[in-house]
Amino acid sequence: MPMNEDTTTTNSTEQAEGIEQPLVVRERPPRRPLVPHALLFGLGALGVLVAGLLVFGGWFLAGATVLVPDVTGIPEGAARTRIAQAGLALGSVERRFDVEPAGTVLSQFPDPGVGVRRGTEIFLVVSAGTEEFTMPDVIGLGITVARAMLEQAGLVVRIEAVESDQPIDTVVETVPAPGARVRTSEIVRVRIAAEGTASTALLPYRLEGRVFVLDPAPDGDGDVDITFEVSRRLRSLIEASGGQVVVTRSATETDVAPPVRIERALETTPVVTAFVGLDAPEAPPGGLAVLAPAPDIDPSPHRQATGALADELTRILSEPDQPVQRAILAEDEISAGIDGPALRVRLGAYAVQEDLAAFRDPTWSDTVARAIYRALGEQFGSR
Predict the structure, then answer these.
(1) Which of 374, 18, 20 is nearest to 200 (CA)?
(2) Which domain holds residue 141?
(3) Whose CA is closest to 344, among 306, 382, 304?
(4) Do residues 366 and 295 both lie within one domain?
(5) Does the pLDDT at position 29 exceed 70?
(6) DSSP states of 210-278 as a string?
(7) 354 near 363, Cβ under 8 Å?
């Protein structure tokens, strides 16, 4: 179709004169969002709800769960107060004879530190104190029957074998003796008949010209001076064999300062054959132990003799089937200036009930003294 000549001319003239033509704006159709707004609002609301539940749940759990307090070792009344203050309830209370003072909490369930819900019951075992009664007479009975009788009475039995002409495993002696007053949980020593062996026999040694220094540390608690008691028995054995003994304190000196003991120990230098210290501390650890300097760090020229003596003594003390520890003696100011083999023997601790029971037993003291004598005789004596 032919264009109008006037129109064409006019358009050409307007373009030539630089007149801009208006733009035509076309509206685009609206696009749909990739994620619907409703979904976004829903997710946001869900997040707020979850966060609220978490906060509320944490608050609820924190308020509903508590840690069980530790009430062992304290009086029952104080334990009840602690349990109530923690928001817990007291369950059943079992009373049991024990060496702890009456009313002391011995154990609890649940254990301390466990998280439980408020209102949970805490069960206690409380000491009923010790019950005093007469020591049963089990002498002449077999050890099986005797042990059952004593344990049923609440006593703790320790069995020792001794040489006897009675039938094997027959009870020949008890410490405490029958008829003595004893208490629940007290340790009793029951000696039963056994065949004699060469290892239990005390063979005499010749110790003429030998000098031994004994240092019974003044650690007694006023009831029994076990270090001096053992040293007294050991001294008698050594002197009966011809040896000379120097003791750093007397029976009446229960608080001798270390400088005084050192001075007495050095009086015999330089002819000391061996130095033996005897210790019985108040606090644990307990039990028999032989303490000697470590051979690899001991500068003394007597380190080999000291090690041999410690080994021999440990072996002999262990023969009655009693555990004996071998420990390192870090430092000992009393024997530091002794020119000779030196070691110390820990007899036990006064705070350990089993050790204290042994300290009060003269036969036990004699057994230890004989063991030390045998070790000294084997190392420095002759037969």
Answers:
(1) 374
(2) 132-196
(3) 306
(4) yes
(5) no
(6) -EEEEEE-----SS--HHHHHHHHHHHHHHHTT-EEEESS-TT-SS--HHHHHHHHGGGTT--SEEEEE
(7) no
Give the three-state DSSP class for 328: strand
Are 256 and 120 contained in the same domain?
no
Decide which of 109, 127, 145 is a domain's last residue.
127
Matching residue, tokens 């400088």: 259
- Which residue carries 């040896």 as its tokens? 243
* Residue 174 exposure: Cα atoms within 13 Å on the Cβ side: 28
Query: Domain ends where: 164, 196, 228?
Result: 196
Q: For the segment 259-309, what is each residue's pLDDT rounded down to a tens digit?
A: 888 888 887 666 889 999 999 998 888 899 999 988 766 667 788 888 889
> What's the pLDDT at 11?
47
Residues 243 and 123 both lie in one domain: no
* Max avg pLDDT among 28-32, 70-74, 141-145, 206-210: 70-74
